[in-house]
Amino acid sequence: MPDLSNAVLMVCGGAGFIGSHFVRIVRKYHPTTRIVIYDALTYAGNLTTIQDLLDEQTTFVHGKIQDSTAVEGAITANEVTHIVNFAAESHNDRSILDSGSFIQSNVFGVYVLCEATRKLGITKFVHVSTDEVYGSINEGKFTEDSPIMPNTPYSSSKAGGDLQARAHHITYKTPVCVTRGGNTYGPYQYPEKLISYFTVRLLMGKKVPLYGEGNQVREWMHVEDHARGILAVLLHGEPGGVYNVGDENERPNREIVRILLEETGRGDDLVKRIEDPRKGAHDTRYSMTSNLTRALGWKPEKDFETELRNTVRWYRDNEWWWQPIIAKPEYTDFIRNFYGKYLGEDL
Ligand code: TYD
User: Fold this and answer.
1) DSSP string of 172-191, one letter each residue
2) Taking a C-beta distance cutoff of 8 angstroms, is the pair 175, 124 a contact?
3) Ligand 1 centroid to 194 CA: how many Å?
């Protein structure tokens, strides 16, 4: 039985959305595991997200995964035994504006972590990726054996990281697993994704930009289910293995918007249907099986509608977290640059 009780776990990107929930889950189920949150605090990572977590068990190191000296220094200084990597540039729309930083973090950064794992004798490294590397599927479901066919600058950068992990395992036997998660929602998600962005805008009474008619389908999973799936792979995954983590809860965007309108008490007049800014790169449907992760003992537990409504309530009750974030230039500049021409005076 794998054991984390004496482990020192470095959680790269632990001040971001899924990474911070992962830290919470590890603290709950493995209270003796030491955790080092390693985070560059880019626009999407915030100390306010983890301020209640830092103590003797959980410490923070500021650094980028692309910086091999900083990564290896943090591993050596803290006697790290395990690594889970959430650090990534993760927003498709930002990658359409400029994808250079995506290659730096999502490809080169993963290479640095693979090298550190190999050189410093890390017991296991789990790299967190996405179902988007498979591309879009109109019917049926992807499995871990499906070809990698990414369509966007973001998803192709994630695919590049996955392939670095694969090659490292095949070439050097580096003990690395890859997880590919579905779309994820919940508290502390940076307010730029469909659910988090629309929720804060609707709470403020602002219009939300729905791309086209909202017919695209995504597989939505609560962040705690996602974090538990990654933990199952850390504990039981086969080195070199790829594990899909999704709960087969498929919804078109327009249905998400309907629930958000209901829960925020807003009307359809706040939905602005805009020409699709993703153009050719807008994937129609993501869908995959997650049987390999289920075989490790994991299953998703959260009911979608209940938790989506709870998530809206969390944003309503926690303006202290998101109001300062949406006031920063790194947020307002992106919203203006990306949505300006579509939202006009409704920006
Ligand atoms: P998003 O949350 O960005 O995740 P991903 O692109 O990784 O699936 O987008 C989810 C869906 O919502 C996608 O089909 C695009 C759509 N969408 C909008 O219609 N309007 C928006 O402002 C955003 C951010 C997304």
Assistant:
1) H---EEEEEE-EEE-TT--T
2) yes
3) 5
Instruction: For the beta carbon of residue 29, count every other beta carbon within 10 angstroms.
Output: 12
Length of the chain (residues)? 347
Residue 133 DSSP one-character state: G
Phi, psi at residue 141, to the nearest 5°? Answer: -135, 145
201, part of any domain: no
Mean pLDDT along residues 12-34 = 97
Structure tokens at 75: 């591993």
> Is 243 a catalytic site residue?
no
In a domain, 85, yes or no: yes
| 3-state SS, residue 80 | coil
Mean residue pLDDT of the chain comes to: 97
Read off the tokens for 188.
């502390």
Q: Of 154, 286, 315, 339, which one is the catalytic site residue?
A: 154
CB of 15 closer than 8 Å to CB of 44: no
Structure tokens at 194: 């469909």
Q: Which single residue is written with the structure tokens 């944003």?
A: 315
The CATH number of whichever domain residue 58 belongs to comes to 3.40.50.720
**Type of residue found at 56:** E
Report whether pLDDT(1) > 60.
Answer: no
Structural domain containing residue 232: 8-185+220-245
Q: Strands 124-130 and 58-62, how do they pair?
A: unpaired
Parallel/antiparallel/unpaired status of strands 124-130 and 82-85: parallel
Write b or e for each residue in 142-151: b if 16 or more Cβ atoms lie within 10 A of its Cβ, otherwise e: bebebebebb
- Does residue 14 lie in a domain region? yes
> How remote is the CA of residue 193 from the centroid of ligand 1, in Å?
6
Q: How many domains does the chain have?
A: 1
Question: Which element (helix H / strand E) includes 155?
Answer: helix 153-172
- What is the token pair recorded at 168? 């490292």
| 60 part of a folded domain | yes
Q: Which amino acid is residue 6, in one-letter code?
A: N
pLDDT (average), residues 24-31: 97
Active site residue: 89, 132, 247, 263, which one? 132
